[in-house]
Design a protein that fits this description.
Layout: E1 4-13, E2 16-26, E3 30-34, H1 41-48, E4 56-61, E5 64-65, H2 70-76, E6 77-80, H3 92-102, H4 107-120, H5 136-148, E7 154-157, H6 166-181, E8 186-191, E9 203-208, E10 211-217, H7 218-221, E11 224-232, H8 236-245, E12 250-253, E13 256-260, H9 265-276, E14 281-288
Helix pairs in contact: 3-4, 4-5
Bound molecules: adenosine-5'-triphosphate.
């Protein structure tokens, strides 16, 4: 059963249509909602929480109707907003206990749950310090803790990696993955970076200008390519020449050789060449696509669409609004992190 389902969902603000006839179903798991700034991610989350009435269409969360059952949805769903207005003078413990009490937990359970949750998000040591002295990463963790404290079945995380440095980003993404795998809580996490969701999410929904661009399992984006990665300790160039002479399409990639698979005999040719040249083979493996490659920018000039020819991607030009390998839409070119 889908945890989120929308049907023809449309949201019009004066002068802008934030969501345009959006129909999508999301199964349990860790799901990424990707789109450039202004694509409609936060608007969708607010509608799903029952906080913003849609102009047209329907939506349900955990089988509850967003138009009629908002309070029930908010009991069962945690929400980490994109921006914060955390009180500077109280500690993380005080704040998260307060949020647990607001969710209806009795005082003792609220304190216990707050302590557990703060430990899970990595804020245990600093939990009695006033939030005003926290770094951006710590503030993001406080927001995450308050979203989890009432033990929701599903959490909406709106741009949780915003403002974090690469190490902080990686830690946050690991934490999000663990929320899904170890705690069994389904996650809808938004990002404007495609690449960072590849190792975090099971599924991604990509929206652009309020329209659905793609909804697909991450695995389907990252299917095996028809290329082998070959690494030898030394003698990369000699091996490359030998394989090219044997009729294989070979190109260097840093320390590696990339070899197009031309049938099962490709493996035999590589093995034999390595033996004949007396090289040490470190690895020979199928290269997997990265999610960003699906949206690689076509180089300028005619006839240059570069969407890789694998099963998950329909042939043809890059979809409209997809402008860079890391970012979807016109919101600015920025390389995706991760992958
Ligand atoms: N209350 C509002 N009134 C008018 N326009 C709005 C309102 N809320 C959102 N919008 C507009 O709707 C569009 C979608 O905004 P939304 O915040 O949902 O995008 P987003 O994908 O979450 O982007 P970001 O990551 O920048 O928050 C934008 O053009 C935005 O300006």
């Amino acid at each position: 059963m889908p945890i989120i389902a929308t049907q023809g969902l449309t949201m019009r603000f004066p002068g802008v249509t934030a969501l345009h006839d959006l129909t999508v179903a999301v199964e349990p798991g860790v799901v990424g909602l990707v789109g450039a700034n202004g694509a409609g991610k936060s608007t969708l989350i607010k509608i799903l929480l029952g906080l913003l009435p849609a102009t047209a269409g329907q939506a349900s969360v955990l089988d509850l109707d967003v138009a009629r059952q908002g309070p029930l949805i908010r009991e069962r769903v945690g929400y980490m907003p994109e921006y914060d207005c955390l009180p500077p003078d109280v500690s993380a413990t005080e704040f998260v206990v307060h949020m647990a009490r607001m969710s209806g937990l009795p005082p003792t359970s609220a304190r216990e749950r707050a302590a557990d949750t703060l430990r899970h998000v990595g804020l245990y040591e600093e939990r009695y310090r006033p939030i005003g002295g926290y770094s951006t990463g710590m503030r993001q963790r406080v927001k995450l803790a308050q979203a989890l404290v009432h033990d929701p079945r599903l959490v909406f995380l709106d741009e949780p990696t915003n403002g974090l440095d690469p190490a902080g980003r990686d830690e946050m993404l690991d934490l999000i993955r663990r929320i899904g795998t170890e705690f069994g809580i389904s996650v809808l996490v938004t990002s404007h970076l495609l690449g960072e969701l590849e190792r975090t999410c099971d599924h991604v929904v990509i929206i652009d200008g309020g329209r659905l661009l793609r909804s697909q399992a991450v695995e389907a984006f990252t299917t095996d390519s028809g290329t082998l990665t070959v690494e030898v300790e030394e003698g990369r160039d000699a091996l490359g020449h030998r394989l090219a002479a044997a009729g294989l399409a070979v190109r260097p990639d840093g320390r590696l050789l990339l070899v197009d698979v031309a049938g099962e005999h490709t493996y035999d040719l590589i093995r034999d060449a390595v033996v004949e040249l007396d090289l040490s083979l470190i690895r020979m493996e199928r290269r997997r696509h990265h999610i960003e490659e699906v949206f690689a920018t076509p180089p300028p000039g005619p006839g240059t669409a570069t969407v890789p020819p694998h099963a998950a991607v329909p042939p043809g030009p890059v979809p409209p609004g997809v402008v860079g390998p890391g970012v979807v839409g016109p919101g600015g070119i920025e390389r995706g992190h991760g992958a």
